[in-house]
Amino acid sequence: MKGSVIKYERDNIDTDVILPGPYLKIHDYAELATHAMEGLDKDFHKRVKPGDFIVAGKNFGCGSSREHAPIALSYSGIKAVLALSFARIFYRNAVDGAFLLPIEIDESAYKDISDSDSLEVNISANEIKNLTKNKVYKMKPFPELIGKIIEAGGLFNYKP
Amino acid sequence: MSKTLFEKIWDSHIVTEENGRSLLYVDRHLVHEVTSPQAFEGLRLNGRKVRRTDLTFATMDHNVPTSDRSLPIIDQTSSTQIKTLEKNCKEFGITLFDINSPNQGIVHVIGPELGITLPGTTIVCGDSHTSTHGAFGSLAFGIGTSDVEHVLATQCIMMEKPKTFEINIKGKRKNPHAVTAKDIILSIIKKIGTAGGTGTVIEYRGDTISELTMEQRMTICNMSIEAGARAGLIAPDEKTFQYLRGRKYAPENYDEYVNLWRENLKSDSSAQFDKSFTFSAENIAPQVSWGTNPAMTTDVTDIVPFPEEYGGGNTEEEKGAAKALQYMDLKPGTAITDIVIDRVFIGSCTNSRLEDLTEAAKVVKGKKVSARVRAMVVPGSQLVKKNAEELGLDKIFKDAGFEWRESGCSMCLGMNPDILAAGERCASTSNRNFEGRQGTGGRTHLVSPVMAAAAAIHGHFVDVRELDLN
């Protein structure tokens, strides 16, 4: 996966800013996507391109259980969120629905990656290449079963 | 081997295990209109049925208007979502407490009041505040829509076993009418942070917890998710058994159940928790949040913090506080009691039960809402509303100038007509003060029902310990 970075230097980016409450009534995923990150960054949907990555701080996706949050990011083109840590329901929704990859990175990678950097993410090698800065970071490997669900393409495609 | 309460419930619900993940049986599945449409659509596309319609209960709460129920719903998308749930429940054979049902209400209020929530059971719902049901010794998880579909189809959920986290709350509060369960849980989140409980099931224990009523315990467990926990849990006791006795869906041979619950549903005295935290409730003050997450909270007697002091050397915390204060339009050093408000909301799954309204009414009785404030009370369910009206609480609130509304999630989450306008400042008994949560640009201060009621009267925050609440 290759793409460029949209970075938010913030902890606790909650599901209410990822996809604000009023839009939970929208069933069309493409329309949902036009409101992604609207609570934090009104220009996000103009800026985001297919294949982009979000980079953020601790506890990404805290708050509500709305699956609309990873869906909106996914349909806006985001392939993975690289964060210091994730809130559990968001993490689970992202994986179960195969919407995007929730990738945990460490403090040094978080600090080093800049907005608009080009990254190449290789989950089989647990590696993130920063093509702009010509650097390589380690990502935290997915737990075995999570990895299998991701590989299968979500909870419903996974066969134990 | 000694076990915690969580481990006992977990172990008794395992269907199968693999690679550290367990397939757990789900005893009760609660469904609402917002997180279920795609799940039912998924069932339909795959030709699946709801496996246990008898264990699945639905209501509509998130986007129902709280105004006159005889009027049509103006917002077309809300109306569609509500009709979709009606259609899905009919098609799949699920019990629905619809908008005109005497049992309609916020899903986490009606579960316990109908006796759907029972000790020792597993409960899931497509809503993060499902942790509320843990107050009854029920292991209750908030889930997303994919999992809702999975549970509808299989009555099971796949989960990695969470860690256990014991929070011991000790000490007698000097003024329990002024320093409430809301103040206890906000004080705890302030200490452990919004990710302090991540990956764990919290068991709240200690003499302070034993003293709380069931409704107060629900307020505590409700906000477990604001500390990032997967669930919150309190061991059931005589108060729990008494509360559920005679409820609509409580089991018929109730005493037999009580005997089993009494015997089994507690952590063994030698049980080990993965994590432990002890908290003294003795000297805590009423709490008011000043920032944009529930950990950004302080005593009513305190000031709006200076970001550099709040950060305590942590630059990320400092930046976060500065951004929060900018959004909240607050100046560091301002006394909390000098913060002037525009709106008051008493309601939500955190604080909309009969006792919340009774306590708030004591503050309001015989007084008038400040001319600068628009204040509303939104009972959590039709049953709460009916019971409150029988006590004359509606009259007390209305005489003071409060709006007395129909049950629903209302102004907690900005997806129905009850919202803040940009720039409006609200004293709210809800659970989240995130940016835009109550409406784009709205500013939320989380407080207890008595604090909200007092703020409505005075137009700014006041220390309710100075009022006569007995």
Ends of chain A: how far apart?
Answer: 26 Å
CATH topology of chain A: Aconitase, domain 4
Proportion of residues in helical segments of chain A: 25-40%
Task: Please give the oligomerization state of what you see.
Answer: heterodimer
Overall 3D form of chain B: globular
> Mean pLDDT of chain B, as a whole number?
97
Name of the CATH class of chain A: Alpha Beta
Largest interface: A-B, 41 and 52 residues
> What's the total count of β strands of chain B?
19
The average pLDDT score of chain A comes to 96
Strand line-up in the sheet with most strands of chain A: 4-3-2-1-5-6-7
Query: Count of DSSP E strands of chain A?
Result: 7
Q: Radius of gyration of chain B from the CA trace?
A: 21 Å
What does it look like?
Helices cover 28% and strands 19% of the residues of chain A. Chain A is an alpha/beta fold and 160 residues long. Chain A has one domain: Alpha-Beta Barrel (Aconitase, domain 4), CATH 3.20.19.10. Chain A has a 7-stranded mixed beta sheet with strand order 4-3-2-1-5-6-7. Chain B is of the alpha/beta class and 470 residues long. Chain B is built from 16 helices and 19 strands. In chain B, the strands form 5 sheets. Chain B has a 5-stranded parallel beta sheet with strand order 5-4-3-6-7. Chain B has a 5-stranded parallel beta sheet with strand order 17-16-15-18-19. In chain B, strands 11-10-9-12 form a 4-stranded parallel beta sheet. In chain B, α6 runs parallel beside α8 and α13 runs parallel beside α16. Chain B starts with a helix and ends in a 12-residue tail after the last helix. The mean pLDDT of chain B is 97. Chains A and B meet through α5 and α7 of A and α2, α3, α5 and α12 of B.
